[in-house]
């Protein structure tokens, strides 16, 4: 039952209407210094971003943002800072993904197909590297062992690079949330509106409604038969 709820939640994210302020391919150019920081100090960045995603209120903290079976069962309320440190060090991948889901559900953000392909390629490369390592261990061939080591090195490099880009993407999105790209920051949502798996739909806070796909920004809706949308000609 819980697994099905998680799957439904993930499928629902594909119907969200907002997009990330910067896609994964553009994060290096958008904030090069922070991307380098996220590459070399990944756990530290994950800690800072999760705390910022919670509006610096650690009383909101739940392990893995409430998306894992262990969430709420690790004594987070007694020492949330220590629990978050443990999460980013021992479960770094989950910590990055949980912060991502938290932002997506709070602001109705979908992941583009290009970003999904990059993330999927990262996972596939990890699996292929694991399979090659097992085959090399069973066969005992030096050539396969060398190829396995090279593939594992490549997979680790891709993993670190994609995680750095993802964390930079999260940081830029929170810059947008906090008003660094606009006139005023967004209001802090109440605690019960922070996203969790038991919410079928994201809370109605955050970004204003976006125009429908196919309609350019700043243009009025199309008129019917040459008349304004609000004044159609009377029927004969």
Which descriptors apply to this entry?
transmembrane; single chain; 54% helix; two-stranded parallel sheet; membrane; 8 helices; mainly alpha; globular; 236 residues; 2 strands
Q: Can you walk through the features of this model?
A:
This is PLAC8 family protein. Keywords: Membrane, Transmembrane, Transmembrane helix. It comes from Vitis vinifera (Grape). Residues 195-236 are annotated as: Disordered. The chain has 236 residues and is mostly helical. The chain is built from 8 helices and 2 strands. The chain has helices at residues 2-13, 27-30, 32-40, 42-53, 80-90, 92-107, 113-139, 142-177, and strands at residues 18-19, 109-110. Strands 1-2 form a two-stranded parallel sheet. The radius of gyration is 22 Å and the shape is globular.
What would a concise description of this structure say?
Helices cover 54% and strands 2% of the residues.
Q: How large is the radius of gyration?
A: 22 Å
Strand content: under 5%
- Major sheet: order of its strands? 1-2
Q: How much helix, percentage-wise, in residues?
A: 40-55%
The helix/strand order is HEHHHHHEHH
The helix count comes to 8
Biased composition (Pro residues): 200-211
Transmembrane segments: 118-139
Protein name: PLAC8 family protein
Keywords: Membrane, Transmembrane, Transmembrane helix
Set down the secondary structure blueprint.
Elements: H1 2-13, E1 18-19, H2 27-30, H3 32-40, H4 42-53, H5 80-90, H6 92-107, E2 109-110, H7 113-139, H8 142-177
Parallel strand pairs: 1-2
Helix pairs in contact: 3-4, 3-8, 4-5, 4-6, 4-8, 5-6, 6-8, 7-8
